[in-house]
Amino acid sequence: MTDDAPTLPPIRLPEGRALPAGMTLRRPDAEDHASVVAVIPEWWGLPAGTRLTALLPRLFFQHFSDRSFLAEDASGLAAFLIGFHSSAQPEVAYIHFVGVRPDVREAGLARTLYEAFFAEAVAAGRRRVDAITGPSNRRSQSFHRSMGFEATGTAEVDGVLAWLDYDGPDEHRVAFTRRIGPPTP
Amino acid sequence: MTDDAPTLPPIRLPEGRALPAGMTLRRPDAEDHASVVAVIPEWWGLPAGTRLTALLPRLFFQHFSDRSFLAEDASGLAAFLIGFHSSAQPEVAYIHFVGVRPDVREAGLARTLYEAFFAEAVAAGRRRVDAITGPSNRRSQSFHRSMGFEATGTAEVDGVLAWLDYDGPDEHRVAFTRRIGPPTP
């Protein structure tokens, strides 16, 4: 299979950031794919049985685990961030999918994961982080703004600026971007 | 937006391989996403209006265009190969999505795209290429075998060896792998 466990870089939390007591952070691996996919309907408040697996195929856990994080506590999976550094755009890092278990929200955990991702991206020479979300996902939009991202788009969709047909017909998206690292001279 | 056009490596065809007369090969970019997504139902023989956009989001055209190919002729889009080099597994390259327009099939075009991908992967130090397909996709399975891939799996699904729930519940897949480059000493 394609699930050989590679040796992945250790995780260091950004200065001044800590995880909630009893929580640990590690790199995901392919075996984590099923448990992450399983929590999505509940964490996103979707009807039971909703399948969003096509948005988060196993390949992300096989090939981009070196830039991704998974947080666990005594209750199991607590949060995850799946991201990668762009191959075609050497200055860009991309955050693809992030989730935090509802009972541990509002504790700064997503912020800590983002800042850990930013710090690794800066260390690897990246200068910008991109992410997208759906026009109706107000929580995600608010979070990205609070993290210093700017939203871009071409038209108003559901009351927010979004890119029409960004991910295919009727798949409109709000695109977020944020500079990271030292200011450009 | 996230569509800054990066400078991408030039494409060289493997020795002994040529494109059909009048066909050219280039790297895709984000603007090609819509036209590739649009041909999928027809090229795959799916009902009109079938949407598989979640399998091929725009991010592949933004961030992995440097390892991907798009072939065009007088009729427009003729073929594409979307792949990348694994970030977490430095020996692995991955072919994610490949399509050839029905009227130019059986001319060796997919083989040429695969061999061009193999050659670039070897040049970048990769030793293995992975790909997956659905248990019912006999054409893809036959093609991968003819290209020297070995299929792996854990159970028989639709008459072929496949990995159960590989990409989520009921998302069984046949996994293919192939060594590339000089034999391991």
Q: Regarding CATH, which class of the domain at 25-83 and 97-109 in chain A?
A: Alpha Beta
Largest interface: A-B, 43 and 43 residues
Query: How much is the average pLDDT of chain A?
Result: 93
Number of E-state strands of chain A: 9
Taken from the alpha-carbon principal axes, the silhouette of chain A is: globular
Strand content of chain A: 25-35%
**Mind telling me the CATH superfamily name of the domain at 25-83 and 97-109 in chain A?**
Gcn5-related N-acetyltransferase (GNAT)
Helicity level of chain A, as a percent range? 10-25%
CATH architecture of the domain at 25-83 and 97-109 in chain A: 3-Layer(aba) Sandwich
Sheet with the most strands: spatial strand order of chain A: 1-2-3-4-5-9-6
Number of helices of chain A: 4
Instruction: Report the C-alpha radius of gyration of chain A, rounded.
Output: 16 Å
What is the gist of this entry?
The structure is a homodimer of 185-residue chains. Chain A is an alpha+beta fold.
